[in-house]
Design a protein that fits this description.
283 residues; MetI-like fold; mainly alpha; 11 helices
Length: 283
Amino acid sequence: MIAGSTSRLAERAFASAGLLSVLLPLGLLGLLLAAALAAALPRLSVGFLLSPLSRDPAQAGIYTAALGSALLVGLTAAIAVPLGVGAAVYLEEYRRQGRFARLIELNIASLAGVPSIIYGLLGLEIFVRVLGLGRSLLAGAATLALLILPLIVVSSREALRTVPDSLREGAYALGATRLQVVRGVVLPVALPGILTGVVLAVSRALGETAPLLVLGAVAYAAAPDGLMSPLAALPVQLFHWSARPQAGFAADAAAGIVVLVTILVAANGAAIVARDRATRGQR
């Protein structure tokens, strides 16, 4: 009887500690967002979203930086998603075992834990200097693609592992080739998990600042008109605004933070909705 009571008390204490570990960071995050929203309210408007960059804090907007971020993230996804999903398919469907596969897995796991600023230094040396791309959108997109590529590979492999082997074996029994099995059976079933991992990885690229600063992203640039346009992005602009001594730029930075967080939350929410719909469609 005493042992049972002690076990229940220990279980309640563990559950309370777990609940506290969830509520504490959420509470701190809520306080930070509330403080940012309070500082951003005077500047949040349609004009702030559609105005170009300016050295006058009262006239500054995020249109140019947001457009640069949109192009940067689009290029990053165009480079990283096909490579990441293709690598995951190869490792899971074609080379599940072997020394070569284990070597690749070890390197991918190691790259996933590398600090983002290291990727910035790598991109500066390879894409900016060696390949001569300069401090352009293309160089920034290639660097961010390297950054999120391990995340896409790992998440896509986990999604592919959830596909039951019985589906593959049934398709093979009907005479399908490996390519037909992968394209017609495995990828459609694993698509919700792959989509979730891709959106999370691309969302990380959207909020990255350190690699872009190392690459030499500019704070004030004209609207990008091509792949070789000067590298500009919303996180870099917010970083420069927060470092300015004028109080007006602090309000601009807070408003930009609220917009960026809203975009990230909307992107993740869209991924969850798409995943649920795809899952229901498979049922």
